[in-house]
Design goal:
Blueprint: E1 6-7, E2 16-17, H1 26-32, E3 36-45, E4 51-58, E5 73-81, E6 87-89, E7 115-117, E8 138-141, E9 144-149, E10 161-166, E11 172-180, E12 183-192, E13 195-204, E14 207-216, E15 219-228, E16 232-239, E17 243-250, E18 253-261, H2 267-270, E19 277-283, E20 289-300
Antiparallel strand pairs: 1-2, 3-4, 4-5, 5-6, 7-20, 8-9, 9-20, 10-19, 11-16, 11-20, 12-13, 12-19, 13-14, 14-15, 16-17, 17-18
Length: 301
């Protein structure tokens, strides 16, 4: 848009639009800078008198791939006021992922946590349920999450036994030791009940198996299955901008089951804006089951 802001000296008005835009040229910054759909900003002044815009935006998976599956993120962008009272934000009206600035004193830095585990995350703040959980079905131990699954599945708009943490970056290695007694449990890349991918350990009439399953709208497919001799395995997901790759460590070593494109979990396909979460879940169409998740890690690269 040509105008992304408006202002007035007297509070009652009249309000007029700024020209050129005081905010961001969103279309340009999408292709050139890596941040898209910037907005919902709060204008603040720091203790040194410098002005900033704290706002939302998202990163699409590639320069020419207009999809995003990581949710809206928070950006801090420098603001400069002009003589006419309006302001310019960012660099030539665009939002960069990083800015060179002299407004922050030496020695101040923001550290990005690169490893999410049961120990490094806040269990009350960062881990998410779906809707109204049955809290008795969740039990934390020091480095273990114990889940009691029910007949409610990830495909239903209800509250399956499910606990998740937000995916915060494109490149990651996710892994967890899992054991089950029956039914199904695993790790899901979850956007909503109609759009999610799983690597799961299951027990059915044929015994124990590790499966890769894709759910995209009305299309639901078990892509691959590896028989295992017991109800335990190490499940892994390798993530990048464009795909998730699913593998498992069993008594036969590490085996890759397959991969799936991230775009089919994106907001452009599934709608929504909160992004993919990495979920640990348990379910059993026959009733209850019990699953233990140990040594969970999500390492950002």
């Amino acid at each position: 848009p040509e105008r992304t802001g408006a202002g007035s000296l007297p509070v009652p008005g009249p309000v007029c639009g700024a020209c050129p835009s005081p905010g961001f040229a969103a279309a340009r910054c999408a292709l050139l800078r890596g941040a898209q759909a910037v907005g919902h900003g709060d204008l603040i002044q720091d203790e040194n008198g410098a002005w900033w815009l704290i706002h939302l935006g998202f990163r699409q998976i590639g320069q020419w791939d207009p999809f995003h599956h990581i949710g809206r993120e928070t950006f801090l962008t420098p603001v400069t006021f002009r003589a006419d009272g309006f302001f310019d934000a960012g660099e030539n009206g665009t939002c960069r992922l990083e800015f060179e600035t002299d407004r922050i004193r030496d020695g101040v830095s923001q550290e990005f946590r690169t490893l999410d585990t049961f120990q490094t995350t806040d269990r009350e703040l960062e881990w998410l349920w779906l809707r109204h959980p049955v809290r008795e079905h969740y039990r934390w131990e020091e480095n273990k999450l114990c889940l009691t699954g029910t007949a409610v599945t990830l495909d239903q708009p209800l509250s399956p036994t499910f606990l998740a943490i937000r995916q915060r970056g494109f490149h990651a290695e996710i892994r967890c030791n899992l054991s089950i007694d029956c039914g199904e449990a695993g790790i899901t890349c979850y956007m909503d009940q109609s759009h999610h991918y799983e690597i799961a350990l299951i027990k059915d009439e044929t015994g124990f198996s590790v499966i890769e399953r894709l759910n995209i709208g009305d299309i639901k497919s078990v892509q691959n299955r590896i028989p295992v001799s017991a109800g335990n395995a190490v499940l892994k997901i390798y993530a990048n901008n464009y795909c998730y790759t699913f593998s498992a460590e069993t008594e036969h070593g590490e085996q890759t089951l397959g991969s799936a494109q991230t775009r089919y979990l994106s907001s452009e396909v599934a709608c929504g804006f909160t992004g993919v979460v990495i979920g640990l879940y348990a379910q059993n169409p026959q009733g209850e089951n019990h699953a233990e998740f140990e040594n969970f890690s999500c390492q950002y690269l």
